[in-house]
Amino acid sequence: MRTIFFRLAVLSLLALGAAPTSASAALTVSDVRIGAQPAFVRVVVDFTGGRVEINEADATDPAVRDGSARVDMRHNAIVAPARDRSAQGVRARVALASANRASVRLTFDRLRFKYVRVFALHGPERLVIDLYRSKPPNTTASEIRTGVNRCLTLRSVSRTGHRFRVRGTELNLFEGSFLLRVRDAPGRVVGRRIATERGGWGLDVSYSGVTTAQAGTVEAVAEVGEGRLAGVPRSGARGAHSLRAIPRGAARGCVLLVRLRRSTLRWPRRTPRSRPDAGATGNSRYAPAACAGTASRDVSSRGTPAGCR
Fold first, then answer.
1. 7 Cβ partners below 8 Å, 6+ apart?
2. Helices (H) and strands (E) in the chain, counts
3. Residues 118 and 164 in one domain
4. pLDDT, tens only, 56-100
5. Are 125 and 47 in contact (CB under 8 A)?
6. Which among 182, 178, 188, 180 has a CA at the least distance from the CA of 207?
7. Residue 208: how many CB atoms within 10 A of its CB?
8. Domain boundary at 111, 133, 155, which?
9. DSSP string for 66-86
10. Is 237 within a domain?
């Protein structure tokens, strides 16, 4: 009897001793860092305790061209001491918005960015927010031609008249759906095409409204993996057409970018006008995540390379 009582007492003490450990493992915001990459500005929210799951993050203000963005992180008993950081022309403020919900508010110059990509990295735990610049890449290093796991690649871009012939490959995209866009030097969308392709593909995308020779960008974006990316119309949004949405929590944000040289983008004579891009203002709730890859890492040079997995 004494032996049984002693064992029960030991188990009770162990259970009581475990309680503080569990409580101390709450997911807690520890720091906010901001750094510049060739194609985007990266905001990293560091956490201690717990684990960051991307389906707990939500880009609640995806109209990034208006100069602001917001990402909410919902996690049971999350702890978010106020943090306020400014660097690279971006201000990031983290606070506890309500019980079990932390908010990351970003502000920057209007029209400076076109997409916001949100994803998680582990070991250590981080919530990563990438702000993609609206203006064309100015170096080869700023281009992103291949996605992680090769879910999308851009092999070549050539201009004929008022259109570009874009060639690439697709691998395991949801329904093979992706979006091609052409942007001018200020970052305005001047052409687009929604596509559903499998394997190798070659597509023409027309553009209009360009009166002088200038640099530009050809982009490809698609929904795949885990994460969020704002700035492209989803299913049901005006101009979304057949581009279907993936369930909440199932998209990872990536972007493919190919720069156009200064003399490449121009408007030839006697060409038909193309339809405007309904998603150019970035007012849709979410954007499909482009499967993309780049050798860039988070601002601490730790963890997994940016891109879809």
1. none
2. 1, 17
3. no
4. 888 877 678 889 999 999 999 999 999 999 999 999 999 998 888
5. yes
6. 182
7. 16
8. 133
9. GSEEEEEEE-TT-B---EEEE
10. yes
